[in-house]
Design a protein that fits this description.
30% of the residues lie in helices and 29% in strands. The protein is of the alpha/beta class. The strands form four sheets. The chain has a five-stranded mixed barrel with strand order 6-9-7-8-12.
């Protein structure tokens, strides 16, 4: 049976301001290659093993999504346009219903992740497939290489098949000391936010653990209207859904939840520091793109889509110029960009 990719493209990408903005968030930008993050995600699941993707996106981005999919020759099974943002659990519910709500396997992927070793990803999918057929909800655990505080973690439990384990426990983003202990224990992985399960298994889990989300999604799809390959769920119905992640709504509560640990050169590209970590650097450790000049400069990430940026005698900075906006901060503090954009929004 073909696996249906479900690509979640509704995020706002505020941590990558000023290049990522509500009107064109990071998944619609070319940050790591010539293709955009959305295009790279679509291209990971080509071939006979996979059916046409279902893309769940913000209604404001509909034209850009269509253009980017067409540019890489992707013909989606549907583009579901969320009338309001309600986090991942309701978005996936819309996709499961659009897929028919039956035994089809759904591979849920955020549209803004980097996977360097796609072959390893596909091997993990094949390891999970037999358990998905039997109704398990499967997530993919990223082999950790540092005590990361910005990710959720999972404890890997008993092995139930080759390379497949029960999830013993989920952890929210941990403090540094706890993350160091989990890394040292060797039986914990990062929660990468990628899932594989049957549509009916997911909807049944919602019915058991988050019925409000299921009812809102069902009502929204009943009230939906379609134009070509676009599906517009009913706004009033979808707005009644609780705004919850799939982890909080389902995965932390369901009984048959499995994890496939995998090392696949993964990054969620959640910050400018994360982009620097995966970028090619020059002899001085600088990663730059655009019109950039640097003298006696080390360890910097510098990107511009217009104005020239020149640096002299500095190190370990992030400098990003886009349009009329310039961001400058020390490396290691880019998670605070979200706080900055929130403060700017409050101040108008």
């Amino acid at each position: 049976m073909a696996i249906i990719p479900v690509i979640l493209s509704g995020g706002s990408g505020t941590r990558l301001w000023p290049m990522s903005r509500p009107e064109r968030p990071k998944q619609l930008l070319a940050l790591t290659a010539e293709e955009t993050m959305l295009q790279l995600t679509v291209k990971r699941t080509g071939g006979d093993r996979y059916g046409p993707p279902i893309v769940v996106a913000n209604a404001a981005h509909a034209d850009m999504v269509d253009e980017q999919l067409a540019a890489v020759g992707a013909s989606p099974g549907a583009v579901i346009l969320e009338p309001v943002a309600r986090n991942t659990a309701p978005a996936i519910a819309l996709a499961a219903l659009a897929a028919g709500g039956g035994a089809k396997a759904l591979l849920v992927m955020p549209s803004d992740h980097v996977i360097g070793d796609v072959d390893a990803f596909h091997r993990a999918i094949e390891a999970a497939a037999p358990f998905v057929d039997r109704g398990w909800l499967v997530t993919f655990g990223i082999t950790p290489d540092k005590p990361e505080e910005g990710y959720g973690w999972m404890q890997v439990g008993d092995e139930i098949g080759p390379g497949v384990h029960r999830v013993a426990r989920f952890f929210e983003k941990p403090p540094r000391e706890q993350a160091e202990a989990m890394l040292a224990a060797g039986d914990h992985v990062w929660n990468g936010g990628i899932f594989l399960f049957r549509a009916d298994a997911y909807l049944a889990a919602l019915a058991a653990h988050a019925p409000g989300i299921l009812v809102a999604a069902q009502d929204a799809m009943v009230a939906a209207h379609a134009e070509g390959g676009r599906i517009h769920p009913g706004e009033a119905a979808f707005a009644t859904s609780p705004s919850e992640s799939i982890d909080y709504a389902v995965m932390e509560h369901a009984d048959r939840v499995a994890v496939v640990p995998v090392s696949m050169d993964w990054s969620d590209l959640g910050s400018w520091d994360a982009l620097h970590a995966i970028s090619d650097v020059d002899a001085d450790g600088n990663a730059h793109q655009g019109d950039v000049s640097a003298i006696d400069t080390r360890g910097c990430l510098v990107r511009t889509d217009g104005v020239r940026v020149a640096l002299v005698g500095v190190e370990d900075l992030i400098v990003v110029a886009s349009g009329n906006d310039v961001l400058i901060l020390p490396r290691g503090r880019s998670q605070e960009v979200k706080k900055l954009t929130e403060a700017m929004r409050r101040s108008g």
